[in-house]
Structure formats: structure tokens, C-alpha cells
């Protein structure tokens, strides 16, 4: 059904853009196969002019919401006609300098996920066709070994990205780090954020009546969309990003001391405020301590030992026990 509607909207847009004079409803109905089918007896639909009129008005409104400027013109006989003038639906000239073009080219290289890679490549081709200057190869020549990437391995990324864009509630099974089994969560998704190589979803948890952050790697099974509008207001982008950073451990409120096996845990070493090298195969580090640090430390397994504070050590031990129990 979605494909059929998209094709119908495209055909209507092409008709309105391709005409030099206003077209009446009757002419549009006879020119587009989907409208002909809608009024044909025995087609499976309601049939008749009323069905066509409702379909046409919805399609016209949808095209206007997508940004197409549709004019309504009345001829001398009082008949209403429609057209979309090309000059009213043409983007203004694109003026980008070489540095701006290079920035767009670099941004297009960031995505590894196939769906977004294709969209980014297509957008660049359209911009270049419209006159955007070609980016120089200085970046590739000098920094080819440091080309940025945003990895997307979770199957839940794409349905959640679309749900965030379309403001659609979702339902999925989520396994917390301390839980042996996943549980169903009903969420109004706000945005996706990447932090330290992991993707997080920020949104409103309907069952708990509060904002929550979910790590995509802990979503099990399929993400299911639900009908209906959001019940909670969506905060601004800055607030959402701060929520993700706070839950993921980016915003530190104090420090923690850990022992780290020599030669291991380079991400922890990069965040360390101080490092004291040991002679027994272990180093002592002081690192920022914020929400979510216990879950991060568990990922390093036997290479990390928490010295203090005591509550962080207890949280890490609890998580390890939960993992051991399966």
C-alpha cells in the first residue's frame, strides 16, 4: 500500500509539473492509472467520483506538505484547474566554496551503513550537478589512514532511525546489563546518539513514565512500530544529547581508582586523569566516574579491578555475577 501511494503521488507530481496549463480534476483522473482504478466499477475500492475526490484531496495535501507548490486556477468557465510551476518549485542557486564542498564530501564518507551511504552519495551527485565545486583530494592524500567512520551493526538502527524521524512509538525487547532475560519496553523515540562506538536511543518510556536511554546492542528481536501520537513532549536536541551522555557515563561527577592489566584497556587509558605504572603487570588509573561507568568497566572483564569508590566496585561485581548466571 505504501509503495502504491508513493507511485500515485509521484505520477500526480509529474503531471502537475509537466503541464503548461492548469489541469482539471477530470483530466488528472483520466491521466493517472491509480485514479482510473479507483473509480472503475468492481475495482475492489469504494468506486465513484466521491472516492476519487477524497483520494485526490489527500494526495494534493500530501504533496504540499512535502514542499510542492501547487497553484489553484479558475478559468473563464469557472472550472478549477491545478498546476505546479517549475520556477516556483526550483531550489535557489547553490553557492558552496571548496572548503564547504570538502566538508560535505567528508560527512558523506562517515556512514558505513548501506542505506545511508546510498542516500549520501545520491545527495552529493545532485549537488555537484547543480554546480557544487568538486572537493580537492588533499584530505584523502594526507589523512587516508585516519578516515572517519560511524559503524552501525545493530539491526534495530534503521527502524529506530525511521521511528525517530516520523515520531512513531515503538515496542522492543530490551535486556539490561544486570538482567538475565529481556523485557518488553514501550518507547516514544526521540533521537539516536553515537558515544564511544556504541549507539544509544533516547526516548520516553511509557511504562515508567520517564525519559530513558537504551543501548542498541541490548535490544533483542525486532523493533515494532505502533500507531498513535506521542504522549510526552520531545525536548530540544541539546537536552537529549546531554541525557545520552549522562546515562552513558560521559558527564562525570567524581573520580574512581582502578587497576588495569598492563597493555590492556586503551580506551580507559585515554580517559585517565592519571596513570601510575606498576611492576606486577598492573597499572593504577584514576578515571572520571559518572553514570554508566560500571557497565563500561564490565566489558573489560578480568583486565580491570575496581579499587574505589565502594559503590562502583559493588555495581561492577553485581553485573559480573548477573553475566555469570546467564
In short:
It is built from twelve helices and twelve strands.
Helix share bin: 40-55%
Oligomer kind:
single chain
Shape: elongated
Secondary-structure element order, N to C: HEHHHEEHHHHEEEEEHEHEEHEH
Main sheet overview? 5 strands, antiparallel
Mean pLDDT: 80
The side-by-side strand order for the widest beta sheet comes to 7-6-5-4-8
Rg over C-alpha atoms, rounded to the nearest angstrom: 28 Å
Low-confidence parts: 137-145
Description of the molecule:
This protein is of the alpha+beta class. Helices cover 41% and strands 23% of the residues. The protein has helices at 2-18, 25-31, 33-39, 48-65, 98-110, 114-129, 138-143, 157-166, 237-248, 266-271, 293-298, 310-325; strands at residues 23-24, 71-74, 80-83, 170-174, 183-195, 198-205, 210-215, 219-225, 252-261, 274-276, 282-290, 304-308. The strands form 3 sheets. A 5-stranded antiparallel beta sheet has the order 7-6-5-4-8. It has a 4-stranded antiparallel beta sheet with strand order 10-11-9-12. It has a 3-stranded antiparallel beta sheet with strand order 1-3-2. Helix 1 (2-18) crosses helix 4, helix 2 (25-31) crosses helix 3 and helix 5 packs antiparallel against helix 6 (114-129). The two termini are 43 Å apart.
